[in-house]
Amino acid sequence: MRHLALLTILILTACAPAQTLTAPPALATDSPAPAAPTATVSPTDTATPPATATPTRDFPNPDAYEWKVVASGFSRPVDIQNAGDGSGRLFIVEQAGVIRILQTDALIETPFLDIRERVDDGRNEQGLLGLAFHPNYESNGFFYVNYTEEGGDTVIARFHASGNIADPNSEARLLGVAQPFPNHNGGALAFGPDGFLYIGLGDGGAGGDPLGHGQNVNSLLGKILRIDVNSGEPYAIPSDNPFGNEVFHYGLRNPWRISFDSATGDLWIGDVGQGQYEEIDFLHADATGGVNFGWNRYEGFHDYASGTNLNNHTPPMFEYSHNEGCSVTGGYVYRGAMPEWQGVYFFADYCSGRLWGALHYQSAAEESFVSTLLYQTGVQILTFGVDEAGELYFGGENDGTIQRLVRK
User: Fold this and answer.
1) Which domain, by its residues, includes 347?
2) How far is Cα 179 from Cα 177, in angstroms, rounded to an integer?
3) How many structural domains does the chain have?
4) DSSP character for 140?
5) Which of 32, 53, 102 is nearest to 368 (CA)?
6) Cβ(265)–Cβ(224) under 8 Å?
7) The whole model's pTM is what?
8) Is 20 part of a structural domain of the chain?
9) DSSP string, 106-127
C-alpha cells in the first residue's frame, strides 16, 4: 500500500496493475481530461495536514472469506435493495426496466415491477437506475425509482406494491429533470436518517461539465438532491435545504451510488471521475447542507478546469487513478453478523474488478481514513446492496450474478 496525506485525510491505495476491460455500461468515463498538473490549491482552500488519528484496528484477512454466488442470470443488475419490512426479500433492479425479487436466495419468477415500455435504456448510462423503499413501506407500500424516460430525461417516481407485485399503473411522478446529454445521469436513491429522500444526479453529461452544472446551485444536475415525500404535492422542499430548492450538496460529476451508514448516519458517495481520478466522498451525519465537492474545478484532489480556486470546498476521502481502474462503484458500510467486518466501507472499480475496504477513525481533534485492496474479483461490479440483516452483496454485469460476502 502507499500512503497519501492531503488535508485531514490519510489515504492508502493498492498499487497492482489494472486489468483491461471495456468501459462500463452505466458508469463510463467518456472523454479524456486535460493533462492534470500537480495539485495546486490556494491557502483559502486547504491547509497543512494535521497529524491524523492513529488506526486502532486491522482489516480482517480477506482470504478467510469469499464472495458466494447466491443468484445468477441477471441482465445489468444496477441496484440491490431491501424493503425493510421483515420479509427478508432482496430486490434486484435490471437496467432495462425490471425489478426482480430474491426470496431466501431463490428468484421469484414474476417480476416485482416491469416498466420497460416507459424506460429509455438506449444508451449505456440510461435506464432504470435506482430504487428506494419508503421507511414505512410495510404499512404504506410506497417505493421510489429513478429512471430515464423515452427521450432521456430523468424521472423520479413513486409506485405502490402489495405482496410480491407492484402496480405499474400506480406511478406518481414526483420530479422530472431535463438531461442535455445521454450520459452522467447518476441514479442513486436513498432515504436518509432524517426521513428525507436523497437523489444523486450527474452533471448532465458530455465530458468535463461543458454547461457548468456542477457549480451552479440553481441547476439540479451534478448534485445530491433532498426532498420531503411526506409533505406537499408532489413533495416539499425541506426548510433547511440551503438554496431554497431541491439541491442539498453540489459539485459532483456522476454520483452513481450513495449510501448512509445504518449505524452512524454518515453519508458515503462514490463519484465517478472524468479521465484520470475516481473518488469516494464522505460526510458526517451532522453535516449541514451546501457542501461543495469541487467538480469541475477539481477531479479528485487535482486541478481539472482552470479558474478561481473554490473557497471551503470539501475534497474526497479517497481517490485512485486510472492506473488502478476507471469507474468507481460506491458501496456500503458493513453492519451484518460478522463482527470483524463491522464499520468497514466496501467499494469497487467497475473496470478492473478491484474491491477495497475502508475504515474511518476519529479522535477529539484528529481524523483519518485508511483503505486496503481486499479482492481482485474479475467481476464488473455495477452495484452493492445490503439485506435486512446488514449482510453485503454485489451485482456483476459481465457474469450476471448476485454475490454475498461469507466466511469460508
Assistant:
1) 1-15+48-69+324-408
2) 6
3) 1
4) H
5) 53
6) no
7) 0.88
8) no
9) EE-SS-SEE-GGGB--SSTT-S
